[in-house]
Amino acid sequence: MASLHEQIGELRSHFLSDLKEASHSKDLENLKVKYLGKKGPIQALMLELKNCNSTERPLFGKLINDLKEELLSHCDHSLARLKQTELNDRLKEEWLDATLPGRASHKGRLHPITQVLNRVVDILIGMGFSVQLGPDVDTDYYNFEGLNFAADHPARDMQDTFYLAEQESLLLRTHTSNVQVHAMENLAPPIRIIAPGRCFRNEDISARSHVFFHQVEGFYIDRNVTFADLFATMDEFLSKLLGEKVETRYRPSYFPFVEPGLEVDVKCISCKGSGCRICKHTGWLEILGAGMVHPNVLKKGNIDPEVYSGYAWGMGIERLTMLLHDIKDIRLFTNNDLRFLEQFS
Ligand code: PHE
Question: Highest mean pLDDT: which of 42-51, 134-143, 235-244?
Fold first, then answer.
């Protein structure tokens, strides 16, 4: 039975040299199966026990069992060690420096024009007006004709209006007043709407004028609407926008679609009326155009001027934003310069 001793010794040394090669926990799992599995050499030795006589059997049985225990403990030991180094390696890879400063995210913000436009719209919604949007591209009828512009009115001139080349009657609206005409077509009095939006005029671009700007239109039609209602609405709106103490001044003016027509000035918000560069030393700032809706406009909109009356106004948002933020050049709004835009959070 010396051969069994030899077999055990050989098996052990094979195992130990295999063990040295194992560099990964997976190798060890394989090694365990190879030596200790059902088809492995230990099991084979166990089977040979039945050829031993009854005195040898317990002796050799113990030898084989000891070997088995020894290999098992080698395996478990090395497995624990390898798993630990593998874990350390992984942790090293996944290492995270919690003290590193984060990456700054670039937060967007609303354009100053949008901010002022939203504020104006919010105030007017609070006063009972609802928002109606009209088309930027419209016909001569909605932009001029329906608003009582005479056929030869200079505002229709090619110099002021962008006409769409292929179709002479299509144009880019020059004001948001086109929404008045659409509103009378789509709604029955009482009508109480505001219309924020873009307008276009074929003018030279300079520090004070641009081909593209924004207006907010107001339009109110009901029975017995008077000039006093217009004053009260403008005063309340402007004090909500510019502060309780704002002083207003109403000057006669002319627009074909209102009669009487007027322009509204506010006491200069910068110098409080003493005169400065912003108000061109007059103490007053022109803020909007307004008036009582012309009977011809009502008639064209199928509203009887004997029964109904109303008022309308329109204000330029670029101009207002320039006054509020002391901006000297209207072109800054469309230059897309972040140094400018980032000032309006
Ligand atoms: N549409 C006029 C403009 O663009 C403003 C205005 C609107 C005036 C409504 C009176 C009434 O200047």
Answer: 134-143
Candidates 255, 288, 297, 298: which one to mutate for ligand 1, based on the most atoms within 8 Å of Cβ? 255
Q: What SS3 class is residue 91?
A: helix
pLDDT over 60 at 2, yes or no: no
pLDDT of 301 above 90: yes
Residue in this structure with the two tokens 């109303």, named with its chain if needed? 310
- Structure tokens, 58: 């317990």
Residue in the block written with tokens 């992984």: 90
- C-alpha 307 – ligand 1 centre gap (Å): 24
Distance, in Å, from the CA atom of 226 to the CA atom of 223, rounded to the nearest integer, reads 9
Strand partners, 196: 216
What is the arithmetic mean of pLDDT over 137-166?
A: 87
Sheet holding 258-267, edge to edge: 130-131, 191-200, 212-222, 309-316, 284-293, 258-267, 248-253
Task: Find out whether 148 and 296 touch, Cβ atoms under 8 Å.
Answer: yes
- Residue 163 DSSP label: B
Tokens of 299: 């008639």
